[in-house]
Specification:
This protein is an alpha/beta fold. It has one domain: Rossmann fold. Helix content is 45%, strand content 16%. The chain contains eight helices and seven strands. The chain has a seven-stranded parallel sheet, sandwiched between helices. Strand 1, helix 1 and strand 2 form a beta-alpha-beta unit. The longest helix is centred in the middle third of the chain and has 29 residues. It starts with a strand and ends in an 8-residue tail after the last strand.
Length: 234
C-alpha cells in the first residue's frame, strides 16, 4: 500500500537515496530542502527546519498532495566543524538548532496526524560521531547524540499509539561531503573501519526502509548502526 513519506533534507546524499528507495517501493515521497533544486520525480518542498512556520506550511503542502505523513525520516542536518576554543557560540547553537531542535519541530508536527491515525513510523538519522565523539565536532556530536535521547523518550511516549521511533547511525558514507577529503584522510578513516570501506548511501537507505516496514513493527527506541563496525560497543 502506498504511504505518504517525508524525508527532510532529501535533495542530495543520504536523504536523496532514502527518498528514492521509498519511491521505488511505490510510496508517495516528499522531500524538504533548504537550497539547491528539488529532485526530479519527487515532491520537493522548500523549507528551513529552523523556522516552525515554514515547517507547518511544508506539512500543509505535503498533506494536500499526498495525505497526512505516515513515515517521517528526519535527515536534514548541517556541520560547522572546528576545535572547541575556536568554536563560536553561533557555530554551536546553529548546529543544535538545525540537527536537534529542527528534528523536534518536524517530529512534533508529523506526530499530530500519526496520533489520530494510531500508527506511524519515524526514523531519525544520527551519526556514529554522536556515539563515539570526534575532535573538532563537539557541536555536531552533541546534536546527534541528543537525537538518541529524544527518540527513546518518544518511543515510550507514543508507543501505545502504534508509532515507532528509531535511530539510524551511519558511519562514513560515500557522499559529496566526504568526497572533498584528502586521499590520506580517507585512507586513515577506512583503516579504522573493520569492513575496510565507506558505506554507500543505498546501504543507509535499506536500514531506514526496513525500520519503516511492517517487518519492523516491534522495533522501537532502537539505535541501528550502519557503520561497518566503526562504533562497536557504543
Amino acid at each position: 500500500m502506498s504511504r505518504s513519506v517525508l524525508v527532510t533534507g532529501g535533495n542530495r546524499g543520504i536523504g536523496l537515496a532514502i527518498a528514492r528507495a521509498f519511491a521505488e517501493a511505490g510510496d508517495k515521497v516528499a522531500v524538504t530542502y533548504r537550497s539547491g533544486e528539488p529532485p526530479e520525480g519527487l515532491l520537493g518542498v522548500k523549507c528551513d527546519i529552523t523556522d516552525s512556520e515554514q515547517v507547518d506550511l511544508a506539512f500543509k503542502e505535503i498533506e494536500a498532495a499526498h495525505g497526512p505523513v505516515e513515515v517521517l525520516v528526519a535527515n536534514a542536518g548541517i556541520t560547522r566543524d572546528t576545535l572547541l576554543l575556536r568554536m563560536s557560540e553561533e557555530d554551536f547553537t546553529s548546529v543544535l538548532d538545525t540537527n536537534l531542535t529542527g528534528t523536534f519541530r518536524v517530529v512534533k508536527r508529523a506526530s499530530k496526524a500519526m496520533l489520530r491515525a494510531r500508527k506511524g513510523r519515524v526514523v531519525l538519522i544520527s551519526s556514529v560521531v554522536g556515539l563515539l565523539g570526534s575532535a573538532g565536532q563537539a557541536n555536531y556530536a552533541a546534536s546527534k547524540a541528543g537525537l538518541v535521547g529524544f527518540a527513546r523518550s518518544l518511543a515510550r511516549e507514543l508507543g501505545s499509539r502504534n508509532i515507532t521511533i528509531n535511530v539510524v547511525a551511519p558511519g562514513f558514507v560515500d557522499t559529496d561531503m566526504t568526497a572533498v577529503l584528502s586521499d590520506d584522510r580517507r585512507a586513515e578513516i577506512v583503516s579504522q573501519v573493520p569492513l575496510g570501506r565507506y558505506a554507500s548511501t543505498a546501504e543507509i537507505a535499506s536500514a531506514v526502509r526496513f525500520l519503516s516496514s511492517d517487518e519492523a513493527a516491534y522495533i522501537t527506541g532502537a539505535v541501528i548502526p550502519v557503520d561497518g563496525g566503526l562504533g562497536m560497543g557504543h
